[in-house]
Amino acid sequence: MTMRQAMAIGVAQILALLPGTSRSGSTIGAGIFRGLNREDSARFAFLLATPVIGGAALLKPPRCSEARATTCAALTGCHTR
Predict the structure, then answer these.
(1) Were 64 and a residue from 6, 42, 50, 72 both cysteine, which residue would form a disulfide, CB within 3.0 to 4.6 Å?
(2) CB atoms closer than 10 angstroms to residue 8
(3) What is the DSSP letter of 18?
């Protein structure tokens, strides 16, 4: 993958700002359009998701409630009792 391909695929994530547009779909589609095969395009799209998901987790940490206590404790280590 060239730097130009990587930049084009990254820029395609901007389309995800439009309502109803999939972030991964736009990046996978851009990868295929730029000449990558489906597997490499999907792998790179999910690699690009890592900072997005990490940033969202930092900006809005999960809150534990009784209904989600087990899942929350397993994922974040917080305890409700």
Answers:
(1) 72
(2) 15
(3) S
